[in-house]
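Protein in question passed on here:
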Amino acid sequence: MDEARARELLATERERLEKAIARVSGDYQADSDPDETGDPTMEQHLADRATELFDKELEEGHLEDLREQLAAVERAEQRLAEGTFGLSVVSGEPIPDARLEAVPTAERTIEEQAAYEAGGR
């Protein structure tokens, strides 16, 4: 893949992820303590609290996933700087451009990724 195209794809992906992280982080922080009023008449029903806890855990998981994706962008940017972008980190084989267009942070060929996900690493 052309280096300029790789930079463009990674920059677009970085921007998307940073915006998503900022949005989710902002939402999470804004909702971090729904009972901050200190007003004892504002007690919540147990089911409402459970729903809020579930939503917070869901947001935390989403935020963690976004941060992992951003780390993948950073690894891809490092490979680009080192001249190894587009080569499998496992075998050194070229990753097809079509795969990199779809997943610019791809670290493995499709076959290697399938084996990795199946536990074969």
The first helix runs from residue 3 to 30.
